[in-house]
From TrEMBL:
<dbReference type="GO" id="GO:0042450">
    <property type="term" value="P:L-arginine biosynthetic process via ornithine"/>
</dbReference>
<comment type="function">
    <text>Reversibly catalyzes the transfer of the carbamoyl group from carbamoyl phosphate (CP) to the N(epsilon) atom of ornithine (ORN) to produce L-citrulline.</text>
</comment>
<dbReference type="GO" id="GO:0016597">
    <property type="term" value="F:amino acid binding"/>
</dbReference>
<dbReference type="GO" id="GO:0019240">
    <property type="term" value="P:citrulline biosynthetic process"/>
</dbReference>
<dbReference type="GO" id="GO:0004585">
    <property type="term" value="F:ornithine carbamoyltransferase activity"/>
</dbReference>
<dbReference type="InterPro" id="IPR006130">
    <property type="entry name" value="Asp/Orn_carbamoylTrfase"/>
</dbReference>
<dbReference type="Pfam" id="PF00185">
    <property type="entry name" value="OTCace"/>
</dbReference>
<dbReference type="InterPro" id="IPR002292">
    <property type="entry name" value="Orn/put_carbamltrans"/>
</dbReference>
<dbReference type="InterPro" id="IPR036901">
    <property type="entry name" value="Asp/Orn_carbamoylTrfase_sf"/>
</dbReference>
<dbReference type="Pfam" id="PF02729">
    <property type="entry name" value="OTCace_N"/>
</dbReference>
<feature type="domain" description="Aspartate/ornithine carbamoyltransferase Asp/Orn-binding">
    <location>
        <begin position="145"/>
        <end position="301"/>
    </location>
</feature>
<dbReference type="InterPro" id="IPR006131">
    <property type="entry name" value="Asp_carbamoyltransf_Asp/Orn-bd"/>
</dbReference>
<comment type="similarity">
    <text>Belongs to the aspartate/ornithine carbamoyltransferase superfamily.</text>
</comment>
<feature type="domain" description="Aspartate/ornithine carbamoyltransferase carbamoyl-P binding">
    <location>
        <begin position="3"/>
        <end position="139"/>
    </location>
</feature>
<keyword id="KW-0808">Transferase</keyword>
<dbReference type="InterPro" id="IPR006132">
    <property type="entry name" value="Asp/Orn_carbamoyltranf_P-bd"/>
</dbReference>
<protein>
    <submittedName>
        <fullName>Ornithine carbamoyltransferase</fullName>
        <ecNumber>2.1.3.3</ecNumber>
    </submittedName>
</protein>
C-alpha cells in the first residue's frame, strides 16, 4: 500500500513523474476529465483549511471523482481508537486525505487503512505543499539544474517536506531559520540533508537572497495557535525574534529572486505587503498548483 506522509516515500523518478504529470494536467485538463471516475476521497480534517480542502475537492471532482468532507471532532475518530475507524473508513472510499495535528496519529491511520493515506498537513510534515512548491519551480525555471532556493522562517513542517524534496531532486536549499518548531524537528532528515551537501544553514537573509533564484517564507505562528490566548507568550517571542528576518525589499538589498509563500499570509509579519503583489511574486501560481500537483498525486497513488 502506497501512502504519502512526508515526501520521503518518493524517489527522484517518481517525484519527477508526479511534477511533470501535474504540469500536463494543468495544461490539458480535458485529457484527465475521467481519470478518477467514481473514485472517492475522504477528507478527514482536525485542523482548519482553505487550500488543502478546496484543492482536493476541486481536483478530484474535475477528474470525475468525489469527496466526503468529515470533521475529526464531529466524527467517531475523536472517541474511538484510530485503528478501528481507519478500517471502516477504508471500505467507503479510495483515498483518505488527513489533516491532523499529530504525525503519530497519521502514522496509525496509515498503518490500518487499506487505501492510500495522504498527509494533508500535520505537525511534522506538509508534503502536498512541497509537491506544489517543486512543481512551481519546475514550471517557472524549466529545470532543477543549478537552482538555489532560500527558505526563511521557522524550521517547521513546511520546511521539512521542502528539504526532503530538494534533497531528492538535487536542488540547493539555504535555510535561514533562527527558530526550530520542536514538534516538527526531524533529526534524521536534517542529518541526511546536511550530509547531502545540498542543504546549508545561513544566518543572513540578505546574503542568502543574493545567491537565490527563489526565496520562500511561511507564517511564524501555526494557524491553529494564531488566535489562541494561551499561546500569546510564544507568539510574542516568535514575532520579536523573527521580525529582523521579515522578507522585504530592504532584506533583498537589490536581489530579485522569485517570491514564494505557502499561504495563509500575514502581511507585515513574515512578508511585507509590497512583495506579495510584486512582479516577482509567484505566490498565487504556487497556491493554484496545489490542485494540479495533487491531481497528479492521486493518479500516482491509484497506479496511473
Amino acid at each position: 500500500m502506497n501512502h504519502f506522509l512526508s515526501m520521503q516515500e518518493l524517489n527522484r523518478d517518481d517525484l519527477m513523474h508526479i511534477i511533470q504529470t501535474g504540469i500536463d494536467i494543468k495544461r490539458h485538463p480535458e485529457r484527465y476529465a475521467t481519470a478518477c471516475d467514481r473514485k472517492g476521497a475522504l477528507l478527514l480534517f482536525q485542523k482548519t483549511s482553505t487550500r488543502t480542502n478546496l484543492s482536493f475537492q476541486s481536483g478530484i471532482n474535475q477528474m470525475g471523482g468525489y469527496t466526503v468532507a468529515m470533521d475529526w471532532q464531529s466524527s467517531n475518530f475523536s472517541i474511538s481508537p484510530i485503528r478501528y475507524e481507519a478500517r471502516y473508513a477504508s471500505r467507503n472510499c479510495d483515498f483518505i486525505v488527513a489533516r491532523l495535528k499529530k504525525h503519530a496519529d497519521l502514522q496509525e491511520l496509515a498503518a490500518y487503512a487499506t487505501v492510500p493515506v495522504i498527509n494533508g498537513c500535520c505537525d511534522r510534515y506538509h508534503p502536498c505543499q512541497a509537491l506544489a512548491d517543486l512543481m512551481t519551480i519546475y514550471e517557472v525555471s524549466g529545470t532543477f539544474e543549478g537552482i538555489t532556493v532560500t527558505y526563511v522562517g521557522i524550521l517547521n513542517n513546511v520546511a521539512n517536506s521542502l528539504i526532503a524534496g530538494c534533497v531528492t531532486l538535487g536542488i540547493r536549499l539555504q535555510l535561514v531559520t533562527p527558530i526550530v518548531n520542536e514538534a516538527s524537528w526531524d533529526g534524521l532528515l536534517m542529518d541526511r540533508a546536511i550530509g547531502s551537501g545540498l542543504v546549508t544553514r545561513m544566518d543572513s537573509l540578505t546574503e542568502a537572497a543574493a545567491q537565490s533564484d527563489y526565496v520562500y517564507t511561511d507564517t511564524w505562528v501555526d494557524m491553529e495557535h494564531f488566535h489562541n490566548a494561551d499561546y500569546e507568550a510564544v507568539k510574542d517571542f516568535r514575532m520579536q525574534t523573527m521580525l529582523p528576518y521579515q522578507l522585504n525589499r530592504k532584506a533583498l538589498n537589490g536581489s530579485t529572486p522569485y517570491i514564494m509563500h505557502d499561504m495563509p499570509i500575514h502581511p507585515g509579519f513574515e512578508i511585507e505587503e509590497e512583495l506579495i503583489e510584486s512582479a516577482g511574486s509567484i505566490i498565487y501560481q504556487q497556491a493554484e498548483n496545489r490542485m494540479h500537483a495533487q491531481k497528479a498525486l492521486l493518479l500516482y497513488l491509484q497506479g496511473n
